[in-house]
């Protein structure tokens, strides 16, 4: 198991996504709102090394934001 202790995995949690021109992004100021393609009821996407592995939701526990995995995504292959 000590070999596994040295493996690094990049985890990303995505609330939603959007596409916009760079000039629009550069003109945004503090407090700007960016509309995403998801609602508050949609599950968050959880990626490991850019591969979708699970869906989840945000929970708050003692003032800490946490991501709770609600569904594993099975890879076909």
From TrEMBL:
<keyword id="KW-0145">Chemotaxis</keyword>
<keyword id="KW-1003">Cell membrane</keyword>
<keyword id="KW-0969">Cilium</keyword>
<comment type="similarity">
    <text>Belongs to the FliN/MopA/SpaO family.</text>
</comment>
<dbReference type="InterPro" id="IPR001172">
    <property type="entry name" value="FliN_T3SS_HrcQb"/>
</dbReference>
<dbReference type="InterPro" id="IPR036429">
    <property type="entry name" value="SpoA-like_sf"/>
</dbReference>
<feature type="domain" description="Flagellar motor switch protein FliN-like C-terminal">
    <location>
        <begin position="4"/>
        <end position="73"/>
    </location>
</feature>
<protein>
    <recommendedName>
        <fullName>Flagellar motor switch protein FliN</fullName>
    </recommendedName>
</protein>
<keyword id="KW-0966">Cell projection</keyword>
<dbReference type="Pfam" id="PF01052">
    <property type="entry name" value="FliMN_C"/>
</dbReference>
<dbReference type="InterPro" id="IPR001543">
    <property type="entry name" value="FliN-like_C"/>
</dbReference>
<dbReference type="InterPro" id="IPR051469">
    <property type="entry name" value="FliN/MopA/SpaO"/>
</dbReference>
<keyword id="KW-0282">Flagellum</keyword>
<keyword id="KW-0472">Membrane</keyword>
<keyword id="KW-0283">Flagellar rotation</keyword>
